[in-house]
Amino acid sequence: MDLGIKGKRALVCAGSKGLGRGCAEALAEAGVDIVLNARGAEALEATAADLHARFGVRVTAVAADITTEAGRAGVLAQAGQIDILVTNAGGPPPGVWSDWSREDFIRALDANMLTPIALMQALMPGMMERGWGRVVNITSQSVKSPIATLGLSNAARTGLTGFVAGTARQVAPKGVVINNLLPGIHATDRAIMLDGAVSKAEGLSMEEVRKRRAAGIPAQRYGTAAEFGATCAFLCSQHVGFMIGQNILLDGGALNYTL
């Protein structure tokens, strides 16, 4: 399918690895020029070079912590005109509700709620002036079904979801489409971190933890960054102009919902 976005320019956050890289690859394959952001310069430059070599698109790598005001300013200064925004940031660590301090919550909100909002506020006015734009926020399945040990993430990402629900309806008349993409467990560094915590807490091997988790997924496996990226690219395409403010769950059927 022709996504109709060749020649557009996208900012992909946390795009050097994992789900962010999957999104950047799929957009590059569709002919989109990429502004690629991540904190680690070495992995970022390697990913940028790979995308340019494979797909022939322009890739601008900007190493910065997007969750800080200074980091965002640096990225936006080099971004130029952006048509597609993919927000993404690593999730807060797991823990127990009684252990989290105000500072823990502020860090989670900064990374997983306030940063995406700040990026949308910076870039959507230009999209609205041009009459076209796409925003995909990578959130979590926990928005629909909370994960007890990820209370910091549950809170921050649900807050972002509420902001998007109203904002998406306000900007849609100007051709700007915002949707959220909710991953379940995927084979990424985040999965390794979460599985490692379970392995340590329960005295199980990583293989045992992964097998047990996969057994609870109807698809019987973890998702891949490539299939996640393909879904993201579709949500950035010309074909989603009537899909406004939705939360698209990509979890292999793990959450047992009718609606």
Automatic annotation (TrEMBL):
Gene3D superfamilies: NAD(P)-binding Rossmann-like Domain (3.40.50.720). Pfam families: adh_short_C2. It comes from the Bacteria. Belongs to the short-chain dehydrogenases/reductases (SDR) family. This is SDR family oxidoreductase. It comes from Falsigemmobacter faecalis.
